[in-house]
Here is the input.
Amino acid sequence: MKNNQVSISHGNIKIGAIPSVSLPACTTCNPDAPCFKKCYALRMARRYKSVSEAYARNLDILINDPVSYWLQVKAAASMARFFRYHVSGDILNRDYINNMVKTAEELPNTNFLAFTKQYHIVNEYLNDGGTIPGNLKILFSNWGEWKCENPHGLPVCEVVLKGNEPAPDWKICGGNCTECACRGVGCWEVKNGETIAIYEH
Here is the structure.
């Protein structure tokens, strides 16, 4: 693979046949989040050298040639009805969310999904008058007692820790992003103020 080529995954067991772009775990994540020390994506990257190298290359392109990074992400997403951000990693900075929004606006026929614990970046964007287009679903990801500040009432993903049970009014993750997307349910359709539960993995 060329050094300037962004690695786009074409799916896995969990998300099905939905393309996604990822960044290195922890390096781009909120260090205050409790999952920072037990990240499954980091374990995966350590287990598979090719995965680790692909995520590192994506970050390198993003930092050193952001125009190319976003053009390649847009090109990949333009050929898909559904596109995921960050099976590994998270929203890097304010410029990153600006480009997520811009890409969604330019591709109105593609549905985008992102989970984030970098809530302060999203909140700052919204506090400054930014808007999130309807085809970009950003879910704040809570982890047990650790909660994202959510003054704008964005959809929430609650990670249900082992031994706990979801609240009665929470929606439950179906376990496969492709199946939920095809059925028009789950994270792709969760609305502001609603919560979807994902069991710890």
Notes: The mean pLDDT is 85.
